[in-house]
Amino acid sequence: MNARSLARWILGAAITSAMMTSAVAADIVVGQVAPLTGLEAKQGMSYAAGLRLAFDSVNKQGGVNGNTFTLVRADDHNEPASTVEQTRKLVAEQRPLVLAGYFGSRNLAALLASGILDQQRLALVGYRTTGIPPSHPLLFNVRADVRDELAKLTEHLATMGITRLGLLHEAGAEAVVAAADEAAGRAKAAFVIRAAYAPDSKSTASLVSAFLKAPPQAIIMVANGAVTAAFIERYRMEGGAAQLFAYSGADIEQLSQRLGEEQMKGVVISQVTPNPYKSSSRLTREFAEAARAQKLDVPVSYMMMEGYIAGRVIIEAARRQGRTPTREAMTATLNAMNDYDLGGYAVGFRPGARAGSKYVELSIISSDGKIQQ
Length: 373
Description:
By secondary structure, the protein is of the alpha/beta class. It has 2 domains: 20-143 and 277-347, Rossmann fold (3-Layer(aba) Sandwich); 146-271, Response regulator (Rossmann fold, 3-Layer(aba) Sandwich), CATH 3.40.50. It contains 14 helices and 14 strands. The protein has helices at residues 3-24, 41-60, 80-94, 105-114, 116-120, 146-159, 174-186, 205-213, 225-237, 252-258, 261-264, 282-292, 302-319, 327-335; strands at residues 27-34, 68-75, 98-103, 124-128, 139-140, 164-170, 190-197, 218-222, 243-246, 268-271, 340-341, 346-347, 361-365, 371-372. It has a 7-stranded mixed sheet, sandwiched between helices. Helix 2 crosses helix 13 (302-319), helix 3 crosses helix 4 (105-114) and helix 6 (146-159) runs parallel beside helix 7 (174-186). The longest helix is centred in the N-terminal third of the chain and has 22 residues, at 3-24. It comes from Variovorax ureilyticus. Belongs to the leucine-binding protein family. This is ABC transporter substrate-binding protein. Residues 1-25 form the signal peptide.
């Protein structure tokens, strides 16, 4: 073979290789339908920012197996019917490999009832609810569930000698009530009063009144950020003296922005991710590096950290599938993911267990309004 022929052969081989690579490589679409406007918009946007941090970081390194990641979002205004409608539209138009970052107990219930996940064989990785979702084979959460948070909170209260508890929860969340009673029983405590709020309610007057009439030593709030903030504000204003404990879905940053230091002082919130403000592990250091490298449109937060973790789990599941990830393989890979250590935070799933982590820590708001852990 002469030099000219050899050059033509090398060029042809390079072109063929490039064509084969481009035919295999793809843009992996991840779909999110969440509240991007309204009272819960900051949570939806923060979760999305975390997902993008993970995807942008890996895309800058050339992607995974030649594939890159794109997040496509749609606003459901926190309305269950819109969650279903926007998901149908997103699935039809964008053909996502996987969904992520959904919000709301009623929203998730409506999505499952619609049959979209089953019909499309589409996994949902990462979601926030004020209830305990059913153990659906296409649901994969990257955080501890409400049961784990209730166990941590009641155990903590028991060590302080606090045994007469109150529970604030969303109406219809019977599984939460049962889990709370079970956790309290193990801690040798009891819920002496419970108050439920309607999901679309904008008033907390009756809730506050109930806890003032039969005051417990401490109140555990399993409610979204808007309800929790409104309850704390009114409860403090009317002289409520019980210690206040919130589950992670209340979003500590959102509460801090909406309430004054005096109202927030002493409030304890369970957290299901490592502290995003401290570089205490490989995960938090990588998160901090990714955040510094991006121009963020929302502040760093626990919610952003959770979105980042969800993004990292999706990336790892795609990596384990090779060059041609599919929806079916995504589900199978996630189900087999029982050993993924992000660096101080482990994620794993097994049949019947949709919560991928058991990590729960407690944060407290100090007298100067700072987050302590």
